[in-house]
Amino acid sequence: SNTKYLGGKVNVIRPKGNAQYIASLLNSKVVNFWFRQRFGMTHMQGGALPINAADLKKIPVPASTEEERRIISALYDEQKYEEIDNRFFELYRLSSEEIDIIKNTD
Protein backbone atom coordinates (compact mmCIF):
# COMPACT_ATOMS: atom_id res chain seq x y z
CA SER A 1 0.00 0.00 0.00
CA ASN A 2 1.14 3.58 -0.69
CA THR A 3 -0.61 4.92 2.40
CA LYS A 4 1.49 7.30 4.49
CA TYR A 5 0.68 8.20 8.08
CA LEU A 6 1.76 11.40 9.81
CA GLY A 7 1.67 11.70 13.59
CA GLY A 8 0.17 14.76 15.28
CA LYS A 9 -1.08 17.91 13.60
CA VAL A 10 0.60 18.39 10.23
CA ASN A 11 0.13 20.84 7.35
CA VAL A 12 0.77 19.28 3.98
CA ILE A 13 1.57 21.77 1.24
CA ARG A 14 1.18 20.84 -2.39
CA PRO A 15 2.76 23.84 -4.07
CA LYS A 16 1.72 25.12 -7.45
CA GLY A 17 5.13 26.05 -8.74
CA ASN A 18 8.66 25.83 -7.44
CA ALA A 19 8.61 23.65 -4.30
CA GLN A 20 12.21 24.48 -3.30
CA TYR A 21 11.53 28.21 -3.49
CA ILE A 22 8.40 27.87 -1.36
CA ALA A 23 10.22 25.69 1.19
CA SER A 24 13.03 28.26 1.28
CA LEU A 25 10.58 31.08 1.89
CA LEU A 26 8.71 29.22 4.65
CA ASN A 27 11.95 28.29 6.40
CA SER A 28 13.61 31.68 6.03
CA LYS A 29 14.55 33.77 9.05
CA VAL A 30 12.45 36.67 7.79
CA VAL A 31 9.23 34.62 7.56
CA ASN A 32 9.87 32.99 10.94
CA PHE A 33 10.40 36.45 12.43
CA TRP A 34 7.24 37.72 10.74
CA PHE A 35 5.17 34.85 12.16
CA ARG A 36 6.48 35.43 15.67
CA GLN A 37 5.76 39.17 15.48
CA ARG A 38 2.39 38.88 13.76
CA PHE A 39 0.95 36.05 15.81
CA GLY A 40 3.04 36.21 18.99
CA MET A 41 4.20 32.68 18.33
CA THR A 42 6.89 30.84 20.16
CA HIS A 43 8.62 27.74 18.89
CA MET A 44 7.24 24.39 19.96
CA GLN A 45 9.41 21.48 20.99
CA GLY A 46 11.76 20.69 18.11
CA GLY A 47 11.83 24.31 16.90
CA ALA A 48 8.62 24.27 14.84
CA LEU A 49 6.10 27.11 14.89
CA PRO A 50 2.40 26.27 15.46
CA ILE A 51 1.13 27.43 12.05
CA ASN A 52 -2.14 26.50 10.38
CA ALA A 53 -3.14 26.65 6.71
CA ALA A 54 -5.00 29.95 7.08
CA ASP A 55 -1.85 31.57 8.54
CA LEU A 56 0.22 30.39 5.56
CA LYS A 57 -2.01 32.37 3.21
CA LYS A 58 -1.18 35.59 5.09
CA ILE A 59 2.57 35.47 4.40
CA PRO A 60 3.67 38.57 2.47
CA VAL A 61 5.47 37.00 -0.49
CA PRO A 62 8.12 39.31 -1.98
CA ALA A 63 8.14 40.09 -5.68
CA SER A 64 10.83 38.04 -7.41
CA THR A 65 11.95 37.18 -10.90
CA GLU A 66 12.13 33.67 -12.29
CA GLU A 67 15.93 33.95 -12.12
CA GLU A 68 15.82 34.88 -8.40
CA ARG A 69 13.53 31.93 -7.71
CA ARG A 70 15.87 29.62 -9.65
CA ILE A 71 18.92 30.82 -7.67
CA ILE A 72 17.16 30.40 -4.32
CA SER A 73 15.99 26.92 -5.34
CA ALA A 74 19.55 25.94 -6.23
CA LEU A 75 20.78 27.27 -2.87
CA TYR A 76 18.05 25.19 -1.18
CA ASP A 77 19.25 22.05 -2.98
CA GLU A 78 22.80 22.86 -1.80
CA GLN A 79 21.52 23.53 1.77
CA LYS A 80 23.02 27.03 1.83
CA TYR A 81 20.49 28.48 4.24
CA GLU A 82 22.42 31.58 5.27
CA GLU A 83 22.70 32.59 1.61
CA ILE A 84 18.97 31.96 1.18
CA ASP A 85 18.22 34.23 4.14
CA ASN A 86 20.42 36.93 2.61
CA ARG A 87 18.53 36.66 -0.69
CA PHE A 88 15.20 37.06 1.09
CA PHE A 89 16.52 40.04 3.05
CA GLU A 90 17.25 41.64 -0.32
CA LEU A 91 13.89 40.67 -1.83
CA TYR A 92 12.04 42.14 1.15
CA ARG A 93 14.28 45.24 0.83
CA LEU A 94 15.22 45.21 4.50
CA SER A 95 17.64 47.71 5.99
CA SER A 96 20.80 46.55 7.74
CA GLU A 97 19.18 47.47 11.08
CA GLU A 98 16.12 45.32 10.30
CA ILE A 99 18.34 42.44 9.23
CA ASP A 100 20.32 42.67 12.48
CA ILE A 101 17.08 42.54 14.50
CA ILE A 102 15.90 39.45 12.61
CA LYS A 103 19.27 37.68 12.87
CA ASN A 104 19.49 38.35 16.60
CA THR A 105 15.97 37.23 17.48
CA ASP A 106 15.28 33.63 18.39
Protein described:
By secondary structure, this protein is an all-alpha fold. Helices cover 51% and strands 0% of the residues. The chain is built from six helices and no strands. α1 crosses α4 (66-77). The chain is globular and about 35 Å long.
The stretches of 5 or more residues where confidence is low (pLDDT under 50) are none
Strand content: under 5%
Q: State the major sheet.
A: none
Helix and strand run: HHHHHH
Helix content: 40-55%
Structural class: mainly alpha
Quote the average pLDDT. Answer: 85
Q: How many helices in DSSP terms?
A: 6
Write down the overall geometry: globular
Number of strand elements: 0
- Radius of gyration (Å): 15 Å
Terminal Cα span: 41 Å
Question: Brief overview, please?
Answer:
With 106 residues, the chain is an all-alpha fold. It has 6 helices and no strands. It starts with 18 loop residues before the first helix and ends with a helix.
Tag the structure with descriptive keywords.
106 residues; mainly alpha; 6 helices
List the helices and strands and how they pair.
Layout: H1 19-26, H2 29-39, H3 53-56, H4 66-77, H5 81-91, H6 96-103
Helix pairs in contact: 1-4, 4-5
